[in-house]
Amino acid sequence: MPQSHRPEARPRPLVLLHGLGQSPIAWQDFVSALGAGRPMHAPWLKGLLPKDAAGFDLEEAASGVGDELELQGIRRADVLGVSLGGSVALRLAVTRPELVERLVLAGALVRSSRSALRMQRLALRLVPERKLLDAGVSRARMLAAFDALATLDASGSLRQVAAPTLVVAGSRDRAGLQAARQLATDIPDARLEVVDGAGSLLNTDAPGVLADLTRSFLDS
């Protein structure tokens, strides 16, 4: 077939995994900044959907994402995860590598920081219930996720990641920066970008910058 008549290759779907304290709608500004032309999917993480039974398990959340992709007939996708969603994306890339073409980890944690989790728990208890409900999140499910993160240590699996990986961290996210440096060092074929002035939830702190970095990485 002549080059001019070949159909354009359809871009791979991009799966967006939200952070702790967020719902899939948190990706709205990022999606607008990234623009049209690429199919995007932003599922709830299993265990954080308000109607789910209380309790969160990282392995089950990653398996839930993989099962959802297969149900939708998506055989291979690019995956972007923020904060807790980044830890789920990392687990998906290790356990279901056939599904992940490229990986973007934004503010993902490698191992738990007990002091940071304690501070986050205290901060969560001060948030009014109405504010949480308006954001579409559940205090009980967030606390269950904190319990799951308390035992997190993904350092032993980083070298198993086969997908080319972009690691992004906000300059104000101290724990995320430390984790990002380890991710970029230990994951083969990974590189690190730091977003000045941003925190751990980069899809809401700096959606335009994250979209630019993601677009450049996926199109390269």
Task: Give an account of the 3D structure.
It is a single chain. This protein is an alpha/beta fold. It has a single domain (3-215), classed as Alpha/Beta hydrolase fold, catalytic domain (Rossmann fold). Helix content is 42%, strand content 14%. It has helices at residues 28-34, 58-71, 84-95, 114-125, 129-134, 139-149, 174-186, 202-205, 207-219; strands at residues 14-17, 40-41, 77-82, 100-106, 165-170, 190-195. Helix 2 (58-71) crosses helix 3 (84-95) and helix 4 (114-125) packs antiparallel against helix 6. It is globular, with a radius of gyration of 17 Å. Mean pLDDT is 86; it is low at 1-8.
Q: Which secondary structure elements does this structure contain, and how are they paired or packed?
A:
Blueprint: E1 14-17, H1 28-34, E2 40-41, H2 58-71, E3 77-82, H3 84-95, E4 100-106, H4 114-125, H5 129-134, H6 139-149, E5 165-170, H7 174-186, E6 190-195, H8 202-205, H9 207-219
Parallel strand pairs: 1-2, 1-3, 3-4, 4-5, 5-6
Helix pairs in contact: 1-9, 2-3, 4-6
